[in-house]
Amino acid sequence: MRARAGRLLSGLVLLAAVGAGAFWWLTKPAPWHAAHWEGLGEPDLANGERVFWAGGCTSCHAAPRAEDDARLVLSGGRPLKSPFGTFYPPNISPDETAGIGGWTLAEFGNAMTRGVGRNGEHLYPSFPFGSYARMTAKDINDLYGYMRTLPKSANVTPPHDLPFPYNIRLALGGWKLLYLTDEPRVQVDSADPKLARGQYLVEGPGHCGECHTPRDALGGFEAGRWLAGAPNPEGEGRIPDITPGSRSIGGWSASDIASYLETGFTPEYDSVGGSMVEVQKNMAKLPASEREAIAAYLKALPPS
C-alpha cells in the first residue's frame, strides 16, 4: 500500500514537472529570428519621423508637461497608474547607458513587436507591443533610425511598482498566449488603399485600441468590442466609443474626424481635452493623407 502511494506521488510529481515544462515552452519569450531584421538597408528618416508621431512615443516617454522641442527628449519616468500597479515608461532616448543608444535594431524591434526585452525578458503590455506587433520591419527600422537622431537623456527611471502576483514576469507569457496576435482586429476592404492604410495606422502604430477598447479581468481586449469605449486606464472618466453610431463621433463625417485630428476642434467648435490632447498633438504632425486614412477606417467600422 505504501509502495503504491509512493508510485502515485512520483507520478503526480512527474506530471506536474511535465506540465510546468510544457507551460514554459509555450509561454517563453519568442523574439523574431535574426533574419527578420536583416537586409533592411539605411533607415528612411523622413518615414521614421512619421512613424514616430503616429506611434505617440512622446505621450508616455517625454517628461510631464514638456512642450515644443522638449517633447523630443524621451527621458521616461511619467507614471502610468493602472489596476495592476504603477508602470514607469523607460528612458528611450539614444543615451548609451540610461537609454537605448546601445541597442541593436533586432533588440529594439523585438521589444516593439514581440514584447521581449533586451535581456530576453517578457515586457509588460502597458507598453503597447500588442498593437505594434502589426508594424512592418521597414517601419521599425526607419523609426529606430529617426529616434537615434533625437537628444540624449541620462535620466534613470524607477522600476515598476507592482504588487504580487503582477510583479512575476513569467505569467506574462500566458498573457501573450491568450492575447498577442498580429491579425487584423476587424475586416475592412483591404483592396482600398486608403482603408488599408487607415487600418494599419489605427491598429498598429497608432495603438488606438489600447485606450478605446474595453478590457477583461486579465487586461486583454474584450472580443467584439473593438474601439467601443472603455474606462480611463489612468483614472477617472471614460474613453469614448469611436465607432460609427456612437454618441461621441458617430455623427461626424470623415472630414470632421480628419479636421479634429489636425486642429483639435470638434464640428461644434469644442476643443480636445484629457489624454487626447497629447494624441491630437501627435496626429497634427502627420501628413493630411494619413489623418484622412484614419478617418476613413473609423467610418468603415461596424457600429459597436
Automatic annotation (TrEMBL):
One Pfam family from the record: Cytochrom_C
One Gene Ontology term of the molecular function aspect: electron transfer activity
Superkingdom of the source species: Bacteria
This protein's name: Diheme cytochrome c-type
Organism: Sinorhizobium americanum
